[in-house]
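User: Show me a protein chain along with its predicted structure.
Assistant: Here is one chain, sequence first, then structure tokens.
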Amino acid sequence: MKVRTQARREAIVEAAAQLFQEMGYERASMNELTKRLGGSKATLYNYFASKEELFTAVVRAHTTRHLTEAATELLDQDKAAIRLKDKLLRFGERMLAVLTNDSSALSVYRMVVGEAGHSDIGMLFYESGPRESLEKLSAVMASAMDRGELRQADARLRANQFLALLTAEIEVRIFYRNSPPVTPGRIREMCECAVNMFLTGAAPQ
């Protein structure tokens, strides 16, 4: 029985991330990854059964892990006596910090956008993190509606609307070749703007 180690798994994910960024999802292959890593393809498949599974691991490690953690924290905070505004601000700051200043995350996003029209990469990406985060954010919205903090509406729609406001000022960055970093203070300003607009529009009448 072959022994798998966490260090080896992480090394494979890091090498795969570089490969996907260089070649794109469609052209990248397990054969090429094996060449770069050394060893046998059997060893690689001992860790990841397919390229799809490997891509999911790359997405979670480089792009959606922080988003998932932020959404989980948001759901945990929903059980505590914390204002909805403060919960959303905290979530927004963690999310925007990754989307604005994490070069690896931006590279993966660009690859997904570029190839989504002719492969399953878009849905693989969505199922690797954004879907779970959206579900958790929707649960927070539904809970806020039950408490009378938000007007009754479709909780999932409200979650999507909030995310759209949150990313309104940064979406264009995905098209830049070299995006300048965004300061924590500027991130805070963008989050406060998004949260205030959202709460104004979704507040109980």
